Fold this protein.
Amino acid sequence: MSTDQTQPAAVGDLPGRRRLAVVTVGVVFWTWLSLRWAYHNTVLDAVATALGFPDLLRSETAVLAREPWLPTAPFENAAETLTAVGADLGPLRLLAEWLAWPFELTAFAIEGGPAMAAGAFITVYLTLASMVLGLAIAVPLSVARVYGGRIVGTVSLAYTELIRGTPLLAQLFLLYYGLPLAAEIEGLGFVGEGAVPRAAVFVAIVGFTINSSAYQAEYIRGALQSVDSGQLVAARSIGLSKAAGIRHVVLPQGLRYAIPGWTNEFVYLIKYSSLAAFITVPELFRQARIIAADSFRVTDTYVVVAVLYLALVLTTALAMDRLEAAVAIPGLGPADER
């Protein structure tokens, strides 16, 4: 039996029970995140107040003052019990402390969960906004690169190579500290009021969009070049213009082929969003830094935040795999071969 038949190629290809476990954990994770976001959402709180339920939601509660929904005492008591028992075990004391650590970590994760959920909310919409806006730029860039001729193709190439060849952190610093972009956004007046995020968030979206558009353009370019060139010739032969042939024949196929590349970019962008912490965006990684500084539990903090990033990545990969299967054309492309 070949390796391709025995080893899963993606999260969505896992065997039944393991895939069900990933889906179940993903559903629980996103349900918890969604409820947390809704509970502290200013718009939903205003709606609930208007309907006569002023105490239903708690949008006014500061991030670090938000209370967890689960008690931490059972886990703390279990950890203390194991530690106390281990004190009498001599050389086995270290083993007892290791057994107690998961309970301590769980209690710590429950306590810091509300603040990390608030950071994850910003991480998610930074990622989604940058992916969508980056795609809007990447499609014309990739079409120009493949079909635009020497001059237009060279401009597209110069853009993608410039962006891909410079560090994302340097791009964010240039936008936030080097250009007056943040001040211009602050000058709009409504920025930072109510549900509207601070200017740093918009600067981060601009930076991630520019960076992501260059990488997405390369993924789409490769996908467009994988479409048989004879299909555009056939489209021209039935009366379609070149632009119409690209729009109605080449792009629908190429965008489907680009989904695996998008999955990679989605995963990268989730993790790269942590760089927004360096321009004061209160996303997941920055919230973790604040919690670590306040609690002095650095290792525990970053273990918890790593698990949250892993959950975001795995559920994203699974969703993108399902999207690829949903839009696949029967008999055409790699998705049909699974």
